[in-house]
Write a structure and sequence with these properties.
Strand content: 5-15%
Number of strands: 6
Number of helices: 9
Distance between the termini: 117 Å
Structural class: alpha+beta
Order of helices and strands: HEEHHHHEHHEHEEH
Largest sheet: 4 strands, antiparallel
Shape: globular
Helix content: 25-40%
Low-confidence stretches: none
Strand order of the largest sheet: 3-4-5-6
Radius of gyration: 25 Å
């Protein structure tokens, strides 16, 4: 009696393999954008949490200092103030809080904007148990001091921070993030100062603006921006009305903003260097009811 042997097919044919590969590629194509969106949403949530903590701390500071916000001018030598008769160096958007600046700033502009973490007024409100190292006697940190890199203050770091624009504004420098360059990814809104400086002068404009912030409740604090990421300034100050800036989340012209009521929002900024670029229904970077002395 003869046995009949049946041969079964093992493995896949080339066409079947190609079909499987095509299906896998299709699934990857569908899933990757969704995963990217979920990742960006998580990073945005972290940034909004950061900026809400910063603005909330600033409002507490404001209560403690008779309505003044943690904004300070830069004087030389390091840590000195106007009342001591020292030289006014200028103003920078990162003096309010953050970690130590990069060694670059120890030499740039005569060290005027080399703001140590120990001198940034908001830091004790966000890191009350941290005492940053700083030389005594108003001496700046040496450029290569390990404290410049060792200190981390992550509430000031935006997960989408890709490059600093502060060294050669508005050109990006991808060798450093803003956080690792000037100590913070978030910057105080200075558009109001630019407007007042042009009309009143440097120190008078600054002083008038700081006093104006003391009555912030009078001009819609839910729209008045105190702080924001670099996209805020990059977009609004660009003179090209059709300008499109893709931020670290992949979105066009959108910035994380902190408002005078302590809230934080992810807002589309208006380019063109126009009046509506600085004051509109979503936000204002200037005093809309400005009354000059």
């Amino acid at each position: 009696m003869h046995q009949i042997r049946r041969h079964t097919k093992a493995g896949f044919t080339l066409i079947e393999l190609l079909v499987v590969i095509a299906i896998i590629a299709l699934l990857i194509g569908i899933l990757l954008p969704a995963l990217g969106r979920a990742r960006n949403a998580g990073r945005q949530a972290i940034s909004l949490s950061n900026i809400r903590q910063i603005t909330t701390a600033a409002m507490v500071y404001r209560e403690d200092f008779k309505g003044f916000l943690p904004m300070v001018l830069s004087y030389t030598p390091r840590g000195s103030v106007q009342m001591q008769g020292n030289s006014l160096a200028g103003a920078c958007t990162w003096a309010f809080g953050g970690k130590n600046t990069n060694a670059f700033w120890a030499g740039a502009y005569g060290g005027a904007f080399d703001i140590e973490a120990a001198d940034r007024p908001l830091n004790p409100y966000l890191y009350p148990d941290l005492t940053p190292d700083a030389p005594a006697g108003m001496v700046a940190l040496p450029p290569q001091d390990p404290a410049r890199k060792a200190l981390e203050m992550f509430v000031y770091r935006d997960p989408s921070d890709q490059a600093t624009h502060q060294r050669n504004w508005p050109e990006p420098d991808f060798r450093q993030t803003s956080y690792n360059d000037v100590g913070t990814s978030y910057h105080t809104n200075f558009k109001w100062f630019e407007e007042l400086r042009n009309r009143l002068g440097f120190a008078p404009g600054w002083n008038f603006g700081c006093l104006r912030f003391k009555v912030a409740d009078a001009f819609q604090p839910s729209r008045m921006v105190w702080i924001g990421d670099e996209t805020m300034d990059l977009v609004t100050n660009n003179s090209f009305a059709a300008y499109q800036y893709r931020n670290g989340y992949g979105d066009i012209n959108k910035a994380v903003l902190g408002f005078m009521d302590g809230s934080g929002r992810y807002v589309t900024m208006i380019p063109g260097n126009l009046p509506q670029s600085f004051a509109n229904d979503s936000y204002t970077l200037v005093f809309p009811d400005l009354r000059l002395p």
